[in-house]
Amino acid sequence: MGRIVVEVMPKPEILDPQGKAVARALPRLGLDHFAGVRQGKRFELSVDGEVTGELLDAARRAAETALSNPVIEDVVGVYEVDEAAR
């Protein structure tokens, strides 16, 4: 079984209140190394068999039409998960 990951982030010009809340909380936890946080979404799509170029193209289409809101979000990644690397 193969898996494809789709990553979606808010467009840079869109406010990210969840990211801001996390950024404010990190220093209180002693994690003051980070200048900012943006929170996005990650989808894992399972497929029967091998991940092919055709399936990656279909995942890109799904990302652009169903998994993201193109007005406020960018699809920043569509890729196969390498199970051996995990």
From TrEMBL:
Biological pathway: Purine metabolism; IMP biosynthesis via de novo pathway; 5-amino-1-(5-phospho-D-ribosyl)imidazole from N(2)-formyl-N(1)-(5-phospho-D-ribosyl)glycinamide: step 1/2
Q: Which reaction does it catalyse?
A: N(2)-formyl-N(1)-(5-phospho-beta-D-ribosyl)glycinamide + L-glutamine + ATP + H2O = 2-formamido-N(1)-(5-O-phospho-beta-D-ribosyl)acetamidine + L-glutamate + ADP + phosphate + H(+)
- Which superkingdom does the taxonomy of this entry point to? Bacteria
Gene this protein is translated from:
purS
Name this polypeptide is given:
Phosphoribosylformylglycinamidine synthase subunit PurS
Provide this UniProt record's keywords sorted from A to Z: ATP-binding, Cytoplasm, Ligase, Nucleotide-binding, Purine biosynthesis
Q: Would you identify the family this protein belongs to, as annotated?
A: Belongs to the PurS family.
Major localization class: cytoplasm
